[in-house]
Amino acid sequence: MSDAAATGGDGERAVRVERDGKVAIVTIDRPAALNALSASVLGELEAAFLALADDVPAIRGVLLVGEGGRAFVAGADIRAMTSLSPEEAAALSRRGHRAAAAIEALPAPVIACVDGYALGGGLEMALACDLIYATDASTFGQPEVKLGLIPGFGGTVRLPRAVGLARAKELIYSGRRIGIDEALDSGLVARSFTDRAALLDGARATVELIATNSPTAVGTAKRVLVEAAGRPTEVASDIEVGAFEDAFRTEDMQEGVAAFLEKREPRFGGA
């Protein structure tokens, strides 16, 4: 297992990236602040995922976790926000959107492993991932209206896609928190686990299962799902048709079909 640490402008170690075989683990490491997202942490998170993109298909999946056991991410760094001008707040919002976009654009699946609080910006980073897995003790919410704010890192965009427009409005307007049962029922969380160890084991098992498939096909499927979300059916269908055509140009498609016909396991090269 290799390890590389990212540091913020103040020297604080905030994001840790570990590679363990085909799995990368990105850890937000500010447990004393419940892993709150400052501008520097968001910048490090974006940089970490942009760097990981260069390692695909060697990296077949990423786990995004929070250190400390109390929170995945409890939200944005409110104390650091108190002195921001409106223009500086817009810059912070753009930085949050860039971090979420880097997670969403990675051509390999990303699983948010939530253990504890995923509130505000924390939920927004989790929503940028492909899947949210969580422990039974986890709590979710977009409480920004309680501060006279709205979600600023993509919550108004991605939460409706995850749980539907009506439920997203109810959660954002009320600012209330929900537990694991409601998160599962709404489709926000894909799977729940009793504790952190089981959560990480389950997420690794999912990445290992995905890794048996063509990395080119998985990456293409992810791109289509992201690009087609919210588009009219005709537009979304055209995106899928174009990607299906592209798949026929890949070596992985040729290998996958050949392996099926020859009744053997495929040897995908990611090309």
UniProtKB/TrEMBL annotation:
Keywords: Lyase. InterPro entries: ClpP/crotonase-like_dom_sf (IPR029045), Enoyl-CoA_hyd/isom_CS (IPR018376), Enoyl-CoA_hydra/iso (IPR001753), Enoyl-CoA_hydra_C (IPR014748). Its EC number is 4.2.1.17. The keyword Oxidoreductase does not apply. One of its GO terms (biological process) is fatty acid beta-oxidation. It comes from the Bacteria. It catalyses: a (3S)-3-hydroxyacyl-CoA = a (2E)-enoyl-CoA + H2O; a 4-saturated-(3S)-3-hydroxyacyl-CoA = a (3E)-enoyl-CoA + H2O. Coiled coil: none annotated. It is an enzyme of class 4 (lyase). GO terms for molecular function: enoyl-CoA hydratase activity. Belongs to the enoyl-CoA hydratase/isomerase family. PANTHER family: ENOYL-COA HYDRATASE, MITOCHONDRIAL (PTHR11941:SF54), ENOYL-COA HYDRATASE-RELATED (PTHR11941). This is enoyl-CoA hydratase. It comes from Agromyces mariniharenae.
